[in-house]
């Protein structure tokens, strides 16, 4: 579970991350990232923690599926908090395909999106239009 200090809860904070932050989309999710912002609601705090929030709409599936996706994303994000700059706001929006995706697929898309936002991955790897996260999927992946 994500620690309380690292949870994004206020509507204004979600709006700040989505409207003023950068965005990286993947087939299963979209990550909105606002780097190093300070929290105006907690004056005097010198180093604000990274905070993350999740948006999982009814398009993802029924309540059981939505909650499963949220739990998986919270767990994945908890393990990646130390890679992000202090004071950052992150909103992870699950897309409809995330309900059928397994843990590894969500992890791969989240990692690729975060790398792109942090400047670690180019937008396109070559002229074929595949990004680094897509390369493993097109070669002998499991059929659905």
TrEMBL record:
Protein name, entry field: Ribonuclease P protein component
Entry annotated with the keyword Transmembrane: no
Renumbered residue ranges of the record's region Disordered: 117-144
Any single biological process term in GO: tRNA 5'-leader removal
Keywords from the named record: Endonuclease, Hydrolase, Nuclease, RNA-binding, tRNA processing
Catalytic reactions of this protein: Endonucleolytic cleavage of RNA, removing 5'-extranucleotides from tRNA precursor
Domain of life: Bacteria
Listed GO CC annotations: ribonuclease P complex
Function per UniProt: RNaseP catalyzes the removal of the 5'-leader sequence from pre-tRNA to produce the mature 5'-terminus. It can also cleave other RNA substrates such as 4.5S RNA. The protein component plays an auxiliary but essential role in vivo by binding to the 5'-leader sequence and broadening the substrate specificity of the ribozyme.
One example GO MF annotation: ribonuclease P activity
Enzymatic class: hydrolase
Originating gene: rnpA
RNA-binding listed as a keyword: yes
Assembly description: Consists of a catalytic RNA component (M1 or rnpB) and a protein subunit.
Family from the record: Belongs to the RnpA family.
Upper lineage: Bacteria, Bacillati, Actinomycetota, Actinomycetes, Streptosporangiales
PROSITE patterns linked: RIBONUCLEASE_P
Enzyme Commission (EC) number: 3.1.26.5
